[in-house]
C-alpha cells in the first residue's frame, strides 16, 4: 500500500472519531423508562355537545380540578387530558370513582363517565407507569336550569 493511501485512511479515521465525538448521539441504556411527570385535563367532551364547559383548577389543593355540568338523562362525559413529557414510555392512565357515593351518581366505561343523576362525583386519574402521578377531578352535576342561569 502506498504511503499516500495509508495517510488518507489514517486522516479519515481520525476525523471520523472527532466528528462522532462532537456530534454523536448520547448513549442511552437499552431499557430506559421515561415516567409521566404531570397529568393536565384539557377539555370536557359530552355526548350532548354542551358548550361553555370549563375546567377550573383548585386554588387551594394542587392537582385538583372541578367541572360543572348540567344534568341530562343519558349524559356521557369524557375529559381529555395531556401527559407530560410527551415522550413518556407508558402513557396509560386509569380512571376511577373515589367518592363514597360516586357510584350512585356515575358509572365508568373505559375513560367515559355516564352520569346517572345530579350530585357530585369525585374522579381520580392515575398513571400506570409506576410514577404514581394522579389528579382529582370533581364533577358537579346540577339541574340544567341552574346551569344555564349561571351563564
Low-confidence stretches: none
Radius of gyration: 26 Å
The helix content, as a percent range, equals 10-25%
Measured by DSSP, the beta-strand proportion falls in 35-45%
DSSP, total strands: 9
Mean pLDDT: 88
- Largest sheet descriptor: 5 strands, mixed
What layout of secondary structure does this protein have?
Blueprint: H1 3-23, E1 38-46, E2 55-57, E3 64-70, E4 76-84, E5 93-97, H2 102-105, E6 106-109, E7 112-115, E8 119-127, E9 134-142, H3 144-150
Parallel strand pairs: 3-9
Antiparallel strand pairs: 1-4, 2-3, 4-7, 5-8, 6-7, 8-9
Considering the chains and any ligands shown, give keywords for the structure:
5-stranded mixed beta sheet; 4-stranded antiparallel beta sheet; 9 strands; alpha+beta; rod-shaped; single chain
Description:
About 20% of the residues lie in helices and about 40% in strands. With about 150 residues, it is an alpha+beta fold.
Outline:
With 151 residues, the chain is an alpha+beta fold. Helix content is 21%, strand content 39%. It is rod-shaped and about 95 Å long.
Amino acid at each position: 500500500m502506498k504511503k499516500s493511501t495509508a495517510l488518507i485512511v489514517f486522516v479519515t479515521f481520525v476525523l471520523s472519531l472527532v466528528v462522532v465525538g462532537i456530534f454523536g448521539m448520547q448513549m442511552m441504556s437499552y431499557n430506559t423508562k421515561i415516567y409521566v411527570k404531570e397529568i393536565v385535563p384539557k377539555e370536557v367532551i359530552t355526548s350532548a355537545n354542551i358548550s361553555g364547559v370549563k375546567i377550573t383548577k383548585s386554588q387551594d389543593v394542587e392537582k385538583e380540578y372541578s367541572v360543572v355540568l348540567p344534568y341530562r338523562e343519558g349524559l356521557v362525559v369524557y375529559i381529555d387530558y395531556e401527559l407530560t413529557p410527551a415522550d413518556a414510555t407508558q402513557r396509560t392512565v386509569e380512571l376511577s370513582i373515589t367518592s363514597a357515593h360516586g357510584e350512585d351518581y356515575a358509572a365508568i366505561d373505559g375513560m367515559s363517565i355516564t352520569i346517572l343523576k345530579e350530585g357530585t362525583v369525585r374522579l381520580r386519574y392515575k398513571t400506570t407507569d409506576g410514577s404514581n402521578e394522579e389528579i382529582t377531578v370533581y364533577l358537579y352535576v346540577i339541574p340544567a336550569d341552574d346551569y344555564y342561569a349561571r351563564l
